[in-house]
Structures are given as structure tokens and as C-alpha cells.
Input
Amino acid sequence: MQIRYKEYCVNYALIAANILYFIFLSFQGRTEYDMDMMLRFGAMYEPLVIENGEYYRFLTACFMHFGIEHLVNNMLVLFVIGGYLEKALGHLRYLLFYILAGIGANIISFYWHLGTADFVVSAGASGAVFGVVGGLIFAILRNRGRLGDLSMRQILVMTVLSVYLGMSESGVDNAAHLGGLLCGFVLAVLLYHPKRHHSQNTGCIPRQWEIK
Output
């Protein structure tokens, strides 16, 4: 089986960036337990954003994970579904989409925790990954219920299951998950224009997708 790696190069690069940053952090300390180290290298913490103006944390936290299981879970989902959206949007738009979805998810989580005054150290790519899910929901709607071999039923089952698992576990930033889902849907409304892609004959969205 021949996989067309160039079609998903941005998605693979994002996965690689998450893995490489995790390896780097692992040499600095225990990512599951060393909160001081995680804060030092960019995890989200509302008081530091408010008091010190450290807005870069909205981005850096998207590439940080608390332990190998946290990393593997997020990267596995991104590996499975990210290529669909990259192929639909094109490489540059997908990169922009992913970054904005991750930042947007963290901003929504930031204001949620401000409202509850429940400040915790948070990090993870799941906000951006939920953004990809939200983007796929819109893209599938635009394509009458199917995008390649991905159906609306499949993506909705994945969404409901992911939200349920997040709600049923403690220590999960569900505000970031739901915020990412919302941001992804809105970003797809702005960035995904299938008719425009066809008319420009860019080849970004072939009528049939193949993995040989």
C-alpha cells in the first residue's frame, strides 16, 4: 500500500512538532508531575497571562502534553482525521486553521476559568484536535454528508464519544474541547470553499480520494 505523504505533509509536521516538543520537555522533567517545569516552557495558567501579559501561552500550550498517554491519544486522533481536513483546505489553510483553532480553544478556556475563578495549569493539543473535528463537521455538511470515505455518522459518533469521555473524567479541560469544536466549525465556514477550489482547478479536492 502506497500512502501519499505529500498530501498530508502539514498534518504530519504538526504531529512531529508535538512529539519533538514532548521529547524536549521530557529531558527537562516529568511532564505528568512537574508543573513548575511545564509553566516555565509555556503551559496555560490564567494568572500568568493576566498579571504578566504572557499571551504566547495560548499557542505554546497547544504543543505540550502531560505524559505519554496524553500525547498518544491526541496524536492518534489527529493522525486518523487530520488528513481529511488538510486535503479539503489545502496545506497553508490547514496550518492556519489548526493554529487558530488551538489558540481559540485556549482563549475560550481562559475566559471560562476566569468566570469560575478555578485556575489550573493546562496544556494539550486536544483543543486544536477538536477544532479539526468541528471543521470536518462543516466540510461534511457542505458535501452532503460525506467527505471522501468519512461520513457524518462517523464524525458525529467520534464527537459524542470524545465529549462524553472528557465529561466523565476529572482533570480534563472540557471548556477547551468544546471551544475548539466551536472555533473549528466557524473557521471552516470562513476557510472552506469547495466550489472555489474546483473552479480554480487547484486539485486540492478531487472527486474521489485514493490511498494505494
User: Anything to note?
Assistant: Confidence is low (pLDDT under 50) at residues 197-212. The two ends are 5 Å apart (CA to CA).
